[in-house]
Amino acid sequence: MAEELLIPVNADRKAVYNALFPQIKALIADESDLIANLSNITAALKEAFGFFWVGFYLVKEGQLVLGPFQGPIACTRIPFHKGVCGASYTRKETIVVPDVEAFPGHIACSSASKSEIVLPVFHRNGTVAMVLDVDSDELDDFSAADSEGLEQIIKLIERKL
Ligand code: SME
């Protein structure tokens, strides 16, 4: 396993995702432990993009429970019907929120979080295994480059579930 990530400087986000994808693929290729892989993925995303918060909420005990993350401490349990994470779980789709204050039911783990993107990660049988939540301290920070880039990374996780 490589010991450090190679991140292009002064590159746009799409270029960074393109550079990151094969490195994440290699990083998790020979490791079967889910928590170890999710941990490294959050670290890689945090390091590559400097996002305010990056983490997984795992489906456990009928709710979403905090898993590996990078960033400030966060809410530990989210009911399926609450917040952007709950909406992504329930609708089974990626949700981009340009302004969290305008999203009804948004859960503010930190007042510094201004926009976010949440993506579901699926088991082979189509049920949601977890969600990936990425928060930014800037308004309107996420675009198609993020949803496409993160969806590719999620596919790597899904193959190992
Ligand atoms: N904002 C999320 C909750 C998780 S934290 O932001 C880390 C939500 O509304 O689901």
From TrEMBL:
GO cellular component terms, A-Z: cytosol
Molecular function, one GO term: L-methionine-(R)-S-oxide reductase activity
InterPro entries tied to this protein: GAF (IPR003018), GAF-like_dom_sf (IPR029016), Phosphatase_reg/MetRdx (IPR051330)
Domain GAF: residue ranges: 38-157
The organism's place on the tree of life at top rank: Bacteria
Pfam families for this protein: GAF_2
Family listed: Belongs to the free Met sulfoxide reductase family.
Protein name: GAF domain-containing protein
Organism whose genome encodes this protein: Dyadobacter sediminis
